[in-house]
Amino acid sequence: MTTYPSGLTRREFEQELDRLEVVSRFPEMPSNLFDEGPHLVDTPLTPWGDEVRELAVDAYRRFIHGETWITGGGAREMEAEVISWMGGLMGAETPTGFLTAGGSESNMCAILTAKQLSGRRGGSVVFPDNGHYSLHKLCRMFDLDAIVVPAPEGRLHEVDPAAIEAAIRPDTIAIIATAGTWAFGSVDPIAEIGEIAERHGLYLHVDGAFGGYILPFLERSGYDPTIPVWDFRVPGVHSISADLHKNGMAPPPAGSLTFRDEALLAAAKEICPPNGTMSGTRGVGPIAGAWAMVRLLGQAGYEAVSLASMAMRDELNAGVERIEGLEIHPGSRINMSLIHSTTLDLRPTAEELRRRGWMFAARSVPAPVGMVLVPMPHNVGRIAPFLADLEDAVGLARPLDAESLSASGVSSYGF
Ligand SMILES: Cc1ncc(COP(=O)(O)O)c(C=O)c1O
């Protein structure tokens, strides 16, 4: 048995890895996880799934030692290919951009670009309060005021464009709208917001971290021709975040930021030289993994993945609606369901489901708890067992009262 310089034997090292996988709940993940990616396609619904997964892992492994400087030629080609393909599907004629570590970095780079273009040192950014917390984070980081526009009374997932316009200040440098909000799954009225941005000469960034890699395919597959236009077809849109490590099914970290044109990328590079990214050295493994998924799945593959995810979401929603006291929050256009109740305190239900092994996110809006489920192809065959457990666990819920409404919710990720 080999002993390494640290004194560990190979066996001890492998046991440690096994233990860490269990701590990370990897063994349970394939069947019980209802959360965002990464879920390399591996399901009977996609006959090519296993082979695609192996090839993506192989691409990742072959570029595992790659960096984006001296040996970055391949990475530059791969990321250009992903951006140009997806940018085209999102309606840009001359898309440019780069791959990032995920939605947070993409949103940061977009707003840094807006700041660079504005020539201001400080300023403000306007966004609806359904925006992801990374928007608050970037405002704090870049010394920008976050002007958060509340949802219309009683319609948490909706956005009133007039309220967005009214919130604009003389020092506003950008508006951010979301296509595929966490956790409503809704799409903001981006056509209307685009007109407002154009009228005020403002940068408009769309956070499509969640929706970016599913909305174009739901539209093209005919699943939902009524999805409001949210991408570069809206003339006011400057940039879009779209995460490959969510609905793009790629291994993390893999996000993307796409600009409408070269001039915007040039501004990004001015503020974040030399590439426009926050980081300097980037690992090429994730870029290669993401590129592999895009090259192997293409439009037809992503349509199949999207339809599979939505079939499960629809089955889940129908089952939840049949359980007395439970509701699906309205507004979702993607594979995201927010389960809540207006009569029951579902905190004991959520805890019981987690005790039974189900992995999902939760949030305290609507109070006291909303359970957020993101069905993806690996969840095939798991909706009915989940619904059976949910029906059981609803029995533990207490009637909703003032105390439960003011109490804190369950933890977001169950740890
Ligand atoms: C809408 C939205 N934007 C941004 C992010 C941040 O993405 P990441 O965690 O990859 O940085 C998320 C993550 O869930 C998201 O849902």
TrEMBL record:
Kindly list the biological process annotations in GO that this record carries. Answer: carboxylic acid metabolic process
In the record, N6-(pyridoxal phosphate)lysine modifications are located at 246
One MF annotation (Gene Ontology) recorded for this entry = pyridoxal phosphate binding
Q: Which UniProt keywords apply?
A: Lyase, Pyridoxal phosphate
Q: Which cofactor does it need?
A: pyridoxal 5'-phosphate
Any one Pfam family here would be Pyridoxal_deC
Query: Cross-referenced InterPro entries, in alphabetical order?
Result: GrpII_AminoAcid_Decarb, PyrdxlP-dep_de-COase, PyrdxlP-dep_Trfase, PyrdxlP-dep_Trfase_major, PyrdxlP-dep_Trfase_small
What is stated as this protein's family in its record? Belongs to the group II decarboxylase family. Sphingosine-1-phosphate lyase subfamily.
Protein's name according to its UniProt entry: Tyrosine decarboxylase MfnA
